[in-house]
Amino acid sequence: MIRLEVTSDGLSLSRFALSPAFELCSLLRILSGQSGQRLPPSWSARLIPTFQRLCHETELDAVLALQSDNFGADLIAPPPKGISQNWNDDLTAIRRTPHDQAYRQVECSLATQKTADPRVIDVLSSNDVVERVARALDQAWLSLMAKDWMQLRAICERDIVHRLGLMGRTGWASVLDGLHPAVTWRDGGINLPSSSEATINLAGEGLLLVPSMFIWPGLAAHLDDPWPKTLIYPARGIAALWGVPDGARADALARLVGDSRARLLEALETPASTTQLAKSLAMATGSVGDHLAVLRNAGLLRRIRSGRSVLYSRTPLGDALVASRRVT
């Protein structure tokens, strides 16, 4: 177990961020089989042929050699700065990596994986390794992630909004306890699962908290420079994206209210606006609005105003229907 000891002042300095580069690298690990995680069948069918083509036509194999189960080069996933982070920010940071720093990470990675692929060695030992890796990553982003990023980003942003609201109501302890089943807040410290034992004092530093779509159901911690002390955790709402089969939903809820309305009910585990739901579920805003009106008139949703936004949330009846969605 790893224990992060943190003061209340340190927690007040904690912040959230998004990392497009980390998401891309996590997706690449899944597609390459480096990770034990799996994509939904529809995503696999759509992305695997493109991934295989990129491995053949680009230098993506060199990127894959820079991460393993126990190591990930900062060259391919630099620390994010905040919740406005986008792919161009990450790509710029990657291209600014000093060659000496990149070469040290290459050595670490090659020592970990012991790759003998001459094509990979050629790229990673070249004088322009940073640019070649950046170019391969950019090609992978444009081909594999760009189309879905708005939807994935919306789910992560909803997660952050939920946790910030929770922090305002009940404090940081409840936020940390709810990040992941394996993360616990005990006696002024954060306990993380690990095969080794260590205690790390944050010494007045805050935590960087990064929601992720592709790390589910796992958890990642960055505890070494140049990253700040960081926890990367599964974003809430993954089930709304991953849990939808290609064909008609074979559960009682979908048969009762229809597929689209079932998806909306399941996604409203936390309150959301029409626009947020449309982005996170990749549905047309007008269609979402029509379905929400039907669900509200049926007593399954309530509508509340938060500032200038109108948010929808489930009623107890809506909660009961979702809880019994697997009953046939």
**In percent, how much strand structure appears in the residues?**
5-15%
Structural class computed from helices and strand pairing: alpha/beta
Characterize the biggest β-sheet: 4 strands, mixed
Please work out how many helical segments DSSP would assign: 15
* Main β-sheet, spatial strand arrangement: 3-4-1-5
What is the approximate shape?
Answer: globular
What level of helicity do the residues show? 40-55%
**Sequence stretches where pLDDT stays below 50 over 5 or more residues:** 244-250
Order of helices and strands: EHEHHHHHHHHEEEEEEHHHHHEEH
Question: What is the straight-line distance between the termini?
Answer: 41 Å
Radius of gyration: 21 Å
Report the strand count: 10
Provide the residue-averaged pLDDT.
Answer: 84
Count of spatially separate domains: 2
In short:
This protein has helices spanning 8-12, 20-32, 41-57, 60-64, 87-95, 99-113, 118-124, 129-170, 172-177, 238-242, 252-257, 259-267, 274-281, 285-297, 316-323, and strands at residues 2-5, 15-16, 184-186, 189-192, 198-201, 208-212, 220-222, 230-234, 301-306, 309-314. The chain is α/β, with parallel strands linked by helices.
